[in-house]
Write a structure and sequence with these properties.
Blueprint lengths: L2 H33 L7 H19 L2 H25 L4 H24 L12 E2 L9 H5 L1 E2 L1 H19 L1 H11 L1 H6 L4 H28 L10 H11 L4 H23 L6 H19 L19
Antiparallel strand pairs: 1-2
Helix pairs in contact: 1-6, 1-9, 1-10, 1-11, 2-3, 2-4, 2-9, 2-10, 3-4, 3-9, 6-7, 6-11, 10-11, 11-12
């Protein structure tokens, strides 16, 4: 393998992982929320809240771990509004989700301006964990298996959620909350609390994805930096047919599209950045055209549950 090809592939793989992890976390969260019947259009806002809070806490505390926890907490704060307004008050999920996203965009931009004015401080380097033996594989070992701990945690979430959905009573309750909420209620399980729990976990995962973007992916916070990642996460969840592994595959696909800018610059290909940035959304449209009709969505998705209502 010549030096040019090696540089291109290395940059492409590294960039794909950095871009895929936020999509993976957000897509897993949306999949969980949709299983219970809540269409969480506010994912973009949760990611932004997590990105700002995660960056600010990491910058103040000089601790990447505290920053990631703060990012998850930021996503949960927005998710609490989503749960209160949509799950408990029964307001329109799409309208509230859009409002929360717009509100988070404005709030994080304002907070950043008040705190940092027009400066963009940068965080320090990120510690990585090299997996024994795997990290020694020629070429790909140091790229794929020497990552920050949060990357391994995201992969672990795929396995954990797949096990919960297939082998636990909780998984059955989540499925019933989205498909047959009245039957779940009749079985003695509180539908509203089940949906609330799912929305809050979704907020934590989306916030963690946003914190990853600002702390590890970029090292800085820039207003509106998510650039539609939350909406791509929604598409991933809808097309994954309830399978976390499919979310992982889709996240990697879109991650490759997002990383092409840097990889092509490494080999000296002069492609306008705007053209490259269009690729993920072109990929979204193509995937929807090919697989959109096969998407399997819960029958009660987007519908507020009211006990006794028909």
């Amino acid at each position: 393998m010549d030096l040019l090809t090696s540089g291109f592939l290395s940059s492409l793989l590294q960039g794909a992982i950095v871009a895929a992890v936020p999509l993976l976390l957000t897509g897993l969260g949306e999949q969980l929320s949709e299983k219970t019947g809540v269409l969480n259009i506010g994912l973009e806002g949760m990611m932004l809240a997590g990105a700002y809070m995660g960056f600010y806490i990491a910058w103040q505390s000089h601790s990447m771990g505290l920053g990631l926890l703060g990012g998850a907490a930021g996503g949960v704060m927005v998710a609490m509004l989503m749960a209160g307004l949509c799950v408990w008050l029964g307001l329109n999920q799409i309208v509230i989700g859009i409002a929360l996203t717009l509100g988070a965009e404005g709030a994080t931009a304002l907070l950043h301006y008040l705190q940092f004015s027009r400066t963009y401080p940068r965080l320090g380097s990120v510690e990585t964990l090299a997996l024994p033996l795997l990290s020694r594989i020629p070429f790909i070992g140091r790229i794929l298996f020497s990552q920050p701990v949060v990357v391994y945690a995201a992969i672990g979430c795929v396995a954990l959620l797949a096990w919960v959905y297939r082998h636990t009573n909780l998984g059955l309750s989540l499925l019933a909350a989205g498909d047959r909420p009245a039957a779940l209620d009749a079985a003695g399980v509180n539908v509203l609390w089940t949906r609330t729990m799912a929305v809050l976990v979704t907020g934590a995962l989306a916030g963690l994805g946003g914190a990853y973007m600002s702390q590890i992916g970029a090292g800085i916070f820039v207003p509106y930096m998510t650039q539609g990642n939350g909406f791509i996460g929604i598409v991933l969840a809808m097309l994954a047919r309830g399978k976390p592994l499919w979310v992982l595959g889709g996240a990697l696909l879109f991650g490759v599209c997002l990383s092409l800018t840097t990889a092509l610059q490494v080999v000296g290909v002069a492609v306008p950045t705007d053209v490259i940035q269009m690729l993920p959304f072109i990929a979204v449209m193509l995937v929807l055209l090919m697989f959109g009709r096969r998407a399997s969505l819960p029958s009660a998705l987007g519908t507020a549950y009211v006990r006794g209502a028909r």
